[in-house]
What does this fold into?
Amino acid sequence: VAVTEKNIVVLVGGVGGAKLALGLQQILKPENLTIVVNTGDDFWHYGLRVCPDIDTVLYTLSGRVNKENGWGLVNESTTTLQALRDLGEETWFLLGDKDIATHMLRSEMLRRGYRLTAIVARLARGMGIGANIVPMTDAPVATMVNTDIGELEFQEYFVKHRWQPIVKSLRYQGIEDAQLSLEVKEALAKADVLLIAPSNPWLSIAPILAVVGMKEAILARDIPRVAVTPIVEGKAIKGPAAKLMNELGYEVSGESVAAFYEDLITGFVYDVRDKDINKSNGTKSIALDTIMLSDDDKARLAQQILTWIDEKELA
Amino acid sequence: VAVTEKNIVVLVGGVGGAKLALGLQQILKPENLTIVVNTGDDFWHYGLRVCPDIDTVLYTLSGRVNKENGWGLVNESTTTLQALRDLGEETWFLLGDKDIATHMLRSEMLRRGYRLTAIVARLARGMGIGANIVPMTDAPVATMVNTDIGELEFQEYFVKHRWQPIVKSLRYQGIEDAQLSLEVKEALAKADVLLIAPSNPWLSIAPILAVVGMKEAILARDIPRVAVTPIVEGKAIKGPAAKLMNELGYEVSGESVAAFYEDLITGFVYDVRDKDINKSNGTKSIALDTIMLSDDDKARLAQQILTWIDEKELA
It folds into this structure.
């Protein structure tokens, strides 16, 4: 089977994960790509259910994303937000007018009893996306960030306080009731390759791995399982990954990330800029250019990763 | 006490009721005016709690209403609605971008456990309205319309089907659990005059009167209780009142409306265009120009009604 005919499951968070997903979308048939998305960032905001990571993936894969930010929609207006401000509200979370339609349709379907998985499929269809975008679970999970200024809901930490509080620990509220959906189970069961995107390991990937049965379902598969570093030259490409690692007591490096995933992965993709990486932990690894600026970069990296996996038979 | 120093409570529905409320607002101190609004039209739409009559009153009294329609906001855009359409939705109910902010703030406060009365007060404050706008009850009530094409939720009947189905009967779902709020009780207890606005008696006023204890609380007050006709020359000023009366077997006239309110009112305001009105039913009545086109018309009618009540001592 050609590498691009294989069934790929990729675990992703927000912006960084969506980039690799877009790369994979460019080189795979839609039916061969399943993107399992973190929902620990989801929250209720002004009566609407907002799923930031899912929406970043939806907007990126449909070509509607605001490329400057990496999230939100392009050509977006903020009439509703301004009206909320006129009513005396604070509105620290940016909601665009078109973006709000996504949240309204989702919230209505939740009210009617649809599972989040079905809702995301409806949204993906409405945006013309063929790949399978699946939430990590249908149950509500909330990543809670214990910081020096107290425990914060994720979006309070991330957006309202711009990830400046010092993180002491994390917990995933509701995770004990979060089961694997049939869709995630089936995708893992037929996967030929599992990828972990260059997303924040603690804030984006750990909640996915914490879903009841997720790790077991992944480890049950004797397939290549490969993570891509979100750390390049001791820095995060975007967001709080490096700062967070420091605060949690990790060395800020690709090795730390590889070690974090160690029991789960059979291969690791470092960045080519990190020349002095220590590969002594036994995981097979490769150094690639993991910085994805253009859409071509994304397709190129996706292709390089799959080709490497194919050649090395990394199961 | 001068007529404009008296405490006025007015029962209203949507557009017609809001017009009289605006007239009263122009001639009364804000603290002397309480507007009790029908909430039987309220519904969930795309995840948001929409209260059409309350919003019409809010927008009218804050000077933000789209005067051409009588409802909705002026200078409104529909970016979100268009985005919902782009996702493949039908969107038969018009939601403007600024309007959506009202629904979002309300829905969020409902989620947080606030009573609708407190929410409406918050919205009124945010729009700079001094008069007391109070929902008829804090409990959710849904006017259900039994028609020749089956039972419809109110907005389905009214907006989706443009009140074209033939009405057989009405019921107010949830009304048995709808209690008088403290705010409505207090307003009625200190009222010097009770008015019933020229709103649809069956669709707008009847749900208010059906709230548990409402009729009793009104009848307990030995004060002038005066209704204004929504029917002029056998026609409704706006909306389905005349068509509905026909379908329910009533003669379409001010007299029919007066008779509908008979056990409740001590006075009735006909329109001056109806010369041949039969005043034999014992209720004191006056003929006034009840058509309110300009804001001055509204203030004039409000003033005429209160002056008449004052002179006739209609208790």
Remarks:
- The longest strand of chain A covers residues 167-173.
- The CA atoms of residues 139 and 219 of chain A lie 22 Å apart.
- The two ends of chain A are 15 Å apart (CA to CA).
- Chain A touches chain B through 34 residues (CB under 8 Å).
